[in-house]
Structure prediction request, 338 residues.
Amino acid sequence: MTCLLRLGLAGATLALAACGTRPSTPDAGAGSGPGYLTIAVIPKGATHEFWKSINAGAFKARDELAAQGTRVEVLWKGPLREDDRDQQIQVVENFTSRKVNGIVLAPLDAQALAAPVAAAVQSGIPVVVMDSGLNSDQHLSFVATDNFKGGEMAGAAMARLLNGSGNVILLRFAVGSASTEERERGFLEEVARHPGLTLISSDQYAGVTRETAYQAAQNLLNRFGNEVHGIFAVNETSTIAMTQALRDLGKAGGTVKMIGFDAGSQSVLDLKNGDVQGLVVQNPLLMGYLSVMTMVSHLQGKPVEKRIDTGVVLVTPENKDDPAIIELLNPPLDRYLK
Prediction:
């Protein structure tokens, strides 16, 4: 049965509940006492606002399940840096050894995390993958944004902003990150549909920190600053860093059209101030929520969808004050991260 998911949390809750047809009482979890389920939620990193929203969504699911009589302990742990593959692998292996009931994972690397996930599944621990893809068929569900579509949206918006003609830069994120690689691919394919757009750089990587992203942005603008008309940066840190570099060069405010990805508070402020002309925005709160709810449904013996799309929208100066957009840009994190 196909489960239709809406962007809103309430609609998503109803849709997910409709997918299950055989509710049952969960078995006792490992290490938290009778009646508990223990679910490890492993993000790519611990510092960016995106992951705090994922965390809030996971805790929202935990609280709702408790109110329904299902006790779940969400164990939140990830690497400090989004390029520390070894640390994330170790976290997966540790939770596998602890025999948690389930693992929810945002893989840092689509290939490097495939073996640890396979080992967890072979030991009887189901895995839900969220946010970023995995080169494996071992996980029971993939809960994520359609990142390719998000990249296409950015490319189409760039074509509109430039009236179909101009020089464009793509600032990539990091090798092996499946989510951002899909955004990059979608953007490149959309740009190729507009003969008047010329891609003058698409092989530079921002890296995982704002500092490395700012250095990459400066290098690009030092080389192409006098000829670029539009720039797409594919994640929170690269968007913030490139916008700052444009300001420092006196080319922000629309002189160079800037499109970013994700709704970090600084990026949203930059959009309101006119230094960013568009943000492709995910719903990480919903992603964390649905990932945990999907895992619990599976552990209760209910069927779950193999692929759950959590939605993506383009936020612009024209629609930023719409009620639905305001709610998306300002998720109630404090309500759940107590």
User: Anything to note?
Assistant: The chain has twelve helices and twelve strands. The first helix runs from residue 9 to 19. Residues 1-33 have pLDDT under 50 and may be disordered.
